[in-house]
Each structure stands twice: as structure tokens, then as C-alpha cells.
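Reviewer 2 asked us to include a model.

Predict the structure of this chain.
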Amino acid sequence: AMAWNGVAAGEGSIICCCMDARRQQVYNALFEIRDGRPVRLVPDRALSVEELAPELEKYEKRVFLVGDGASLCYNYLNEAGISVQIAPEPLRLQSAWGVARAAMQIEPVSGIDLEPNYLRLSQAERERQEKLAKEQKTTT
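Predicted model (C-alpha cells):
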């Protein structure tokens, strides 16, 4: 849904959706604007800005950053010498308009059929797994 805000960047632009995932990571997806709509280039993922940088460097097109992690990415990528543009404030964050535009592109489903798409375990679950792994090492 956030990628629809990138339509303002123009045809052929790469839209880099960046939601702050904390710990110097972003939830990210890349899209290209084709025929006035975003076309997905990669699946949703969680990765560090350092991992994102070389991927964006490969594109020889305008890269437009949207999302609440856009500023974090912009600062890092700009310092790394990668040419990116941050979306203006009114286009930066997800909006009901973007959600509605995205919904128009898919077959409707009932609310009961909707499922969350978790890209990584919660911090509490990660810490629990680390604790269990340490306990197993000390008992074996």
C-alpha cells in the first residue's frame, strides 16, 4: 500500500519502502513504477540498511524512499554516496489512500481469511530462543 505513494516519483522510478524495524534494520520491499502503478521487484523482507545499500546501487534509475524508515535509510545511503530521494512529508507515510489503491488491485476476501505476514520473530521470542540455546549448551 505504501508503494502507491511512490507513483508521484514518476514512470520508471524505483520505490524503496522502508519501515523502521529497530536494531538498524528496516522492513523493506522494492517496486518500480510501470504504467502508473507500482510493480513488485522483491518480496517483503527485513534487512539492514547496509544490506540494502548495494542492492539499490545496482539500479540506474531514480530511487524514491517512502515509509517511517525513509529518513534512516536516506541518511545512511546519502553518506554512502548512493543517489536517493526521500519522499516529501505528505507522501512519506502509509495512508488510507494507498491502502485503498492497493486493495483495488486484488480479489476481495473476507476478514476471517486475512492473516498477518511476520517477517521476523518478535524481540521477546528471539531473546527466549537465545536463552534456551544457552541453557542447552550449558546442560550438554
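The longest strand covers residues 25-34. The CA atoms of residues 18 and 55 lie 14 Å apart. We have added this to the supplementary material.
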